[in-house]
Amino acid sequence: MTKGTASMGKKSGKSHLCIRCRRCGKRAYFVRHKKCASCGYGKSKKLRSYSWQKKRQH
């Protein structure tokens, strides 16, 4: 007696998937949200950047 569906048979749905971004090239484009976590592609035309990311110059 086997179980209903083998575990490998449930690997078809790819809802939580990050692929390579077209704009920045990093593997941060979230398919379900349709936006890149790194550069903000899909959310805005401007590149995603914050003041706390940049090191201060003395």
Explain this structure:
This protein has 58 residues and is low in regular secondary structure. The protein has a domain of 26 residues. 0% of the residues lie in helices and 10% in strands. It contains no helices and three strands. The protein has a three-stranded antiparallel sheet, with no helix packed on it. Strand 2 and strand 3 form a beta hairpin. The termini are far apart.
Quick overview of this protein structure:
The chain contains no helices and three strands. The protein is low in regular secondary structure and 58 residues long.
Cα(first) to Cα(last) distance is 71 Å
Helical content band: under 10%
Contiguous low-pLDDT stretches (5 residues minimum) are none
Radius of gyration using CA atoms only: 18 Å
Overall body shape: elongated
What proportion of the residues form beta strands (DSSP E)?
A: 5-15%
Q: Helical segment tally? A: 0
Question: What characterizes the major β-sheet?
Answer: 3 strands, antiparallel
Q: What order do the SSEs take from the amino end to the carboxyl end, as H and E?
A: EEE
The secondary structure category is: little secondary structure
Report the count of strand segments. 3
Mean pLDDT: 86
Spatial sequence of strands, sheet with the most strands: 1-2-3
